[in-house]
């Protein structure tokens, strides 16, 4: 959220002060003249009526892990949300900010592990690429079509950390949201 503020003059009917080309004041339901200085807005309100109002930007949502998001969601159902958050996490300030301002859940990064070469049975076919992947804790290699619409096997950072040496030797390619 920006630290800069904007001010507008508003009357009791929620009409906003604006000035026409000749500098004459007019009141509108939508729109008005804004200023970045509260003293200017105060001066306008003294001269033309109404009162200065500070416009507040919508705060940016906090990015949380899935586990943190679960804590914040559960806190909404708690009788004492702040106490719940304090008991469940050491990230009280972050999670309270998420509780108040909203949050999004960070997508876990995923990677493709393309390998050199092809399996012997398809040596003459250029439409296949060899990839390593993890399936139920076992590391495998498989040829898959190079067609971009094909859903390739992806792996997570956590899986890469526990991978055997032959997998760690492969340069991982991060998959963007567009590629998922």
The Rg value, from CA coordinates, equals 28 Å
Average predicted confidence as pLDDT: 83
Q: What structural category arises from helix and sheet content?
A: alpha+beta
Main sheet record: 5 strands, antiparallel
Number of strands: 11
Distance between the termini: 30 Å
Determine the number of helices (DSSP H or I, runs of at least 4 residues): 6
Helix amount: 25-40%
Strand content: 25-35%
Taking pLDDT < 50 over at least 5 consecutive residues as the criterion, the unreliable ranges are none
Give the ordered list of helices and strands: EEEHEEHHHEEEEEHHE
| Silhouette | elongated
Task: Describe the protein's architecture and organization.
This protein is an alpha+beta fold and 180 residues long. It has six helices and eleven strands. It has helices spanning 38-48, 66-76, 81-88, 92-101, 157-161, 165-168; strands spanning 6-10, 16-19, 25-28, 51-55, 62-64, 103-105, 110-115, 128-135, 138-145, 155-156, 173-175. The strands form four sheets. Strands 7, 8, 9, 10 and 11 form a five-stranded antiparallel beta sheet that branches. Strands 1-4 form a two-stranded antiparallel sheet. The protein has a two-stranded antiparallel ribbon with strand order 2-3. α2 packs across α4. The longest helix has 11 residues, at 38-48. The mean pLDDT is 83.
Q: How does the SSE layout of this entry go?
A:
Elements: E1 6-10, E2 16-19, E3 25-28, H1 38-48, E4 51-55, E5 62-64, H2 66-76, H3 81-88, H4 92-101, E6 103-105, E7 110-115, E8 128-135, E9 138-145, E10 155-156, H5 157-161, H6 165-168, E11 173-175
Parallel strand pairs: 5-6
Antiparallel strand pairs: 1-4, 2-3, 7-8, 7-10, 7-11, 8-9
């Amino acid at each position: 959220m920006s630290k800069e503020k904007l001010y507008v003059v508003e009357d009791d009917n929620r009409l906003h002060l604006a000035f026409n080309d000749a500098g004459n004041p007019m009141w509108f339901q939508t729109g008005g003249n804004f200023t970045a200085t509260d003293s200017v807005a105060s001066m306008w309100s003294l001269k033309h009526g109404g009162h200065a109002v500070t416009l507040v930007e919508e705060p940016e949502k906090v990015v949380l892990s899935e586990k943190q998001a679960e804590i914040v969601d559960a806190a909404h159902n708690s009788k004492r949300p702040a106490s719940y958050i304090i008991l469940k996490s050491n990230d009280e300030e972050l999670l309270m900010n998420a509780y108040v301002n909203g949050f999004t859940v960070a997508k876990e990064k995923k990677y493709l592990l393309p390998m050199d070469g092809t399996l012997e049975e398809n040596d003459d076919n250029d439409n296949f690429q060899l990839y390593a992947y993890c399936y139920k804790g076992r590391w495998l290699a498989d040829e898959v079509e190079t067609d971009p619409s094909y859903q390739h096997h992806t792996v997570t950072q956590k899986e890469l950390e526990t991978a055997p040496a032959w997998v760690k030797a492969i340069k991982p390619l991060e998959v963007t949201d567009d590629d998922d």
